[in-house]
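Sequence, structure tokens passed on for absentees:
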Amino acid sequence: MGSGNGFYESEEFNLDAKWLVDPKLLFVGPRIGEGAHAKVYEGKYKNQNVAIKIVHKGETPEEIAKREGRFAREVAMLSRVQHKNLVKFIGACKEPVMVIVTELLLGGTLRKYLLNLRPRCLDTRVAVGFALDIARAMECLHSHGIIHRDLKPENLILTADHKTVKLADFGLAREESLTEMMTAETGTYRWMAPELYSTVTLRHGEKKHYNHKVDAYSFAIVLWELVHNKLPFEGMSNLQAAYAAAFKNVRPSAEDLPGDLALIVTSCWKEDPNARPNFSQIIQMLLQYLSTISPPEPMVPPRVFTSENAVLPPESPGTSSLMAIRDDSGETPKTSMETNPRGCFSCFNHCY
């Protein structure tokens, strides 16, 4: 991916002053996530609850340079793209360590949400609604020349009310080396477009050719998973799934999907990237499908005529209806930051 196709690439850490975070006002709390190159903590910045991503610097000069470049690109992308379905960027700093601060979303990852729901499935309207959130986020990224390349449930975060999905953890805005791509992200293969890793015979240093349609493929796998609430390519290891998708054109079964939804999924994961729809088209297809689904019957409890001071028994219609709509995944966790805030850089020895 280079400047020739209009997609974004940057190496320098040039950040507008309005996005620069003052480390002295940053407080780090409990760890809430961890990836190959960074750890994410719940925290506070200027009395605002935030998520704090601390990027590992690396050991060798080559590794340090590579991670600084990755950090600079991610910050550059976050600072120039805002959308209601993208995690909101608050700021960043490079010294004394590389830190990215974003809004804190307490609904957890889509992966965790789906696991907690199993063996049940999402209501179809909810699944398609989540898919629309994701598609709108991707349309925004692509309109800014950014390819995500790592779209999967782990990188999709829910709001506290579990009604909205936001995309987090932007992928690199340029191509990584083949070795890095094949080792850095465990489990990514199930959602990754085959053209990203089916070129294992390329000579060292040769560029792989792909475009933004890799994200359409990943979206199809995520949409399939939203509807079925099953792991795609179940029964296969990550590498088996990658091999089957890339060299045998194997895909999860779309037979159980409604016709119109099956068409969306299968068009998005076509082997030929150019035959896949873009996200503007995907959004229109999803909206069209959503319009064909009958809305669920609203649950209206029968009216109970009683005095204001009467105490309704636990089995009353009103109580039952409230219990029925209670979120099964439990209450939103409370932050511990109010009781035990710590200065950000007092904990860095423990962050690693």
About this structure: Residues 60 and 66 are 10 Å apart (CA to CA). Residues 110-292 form a domain with the Transferase(Phosphotransferase); domain 1 fold (CATH 1.10.510.10). The longest helix spans residues 61-80. The mean pLDDT is 78.
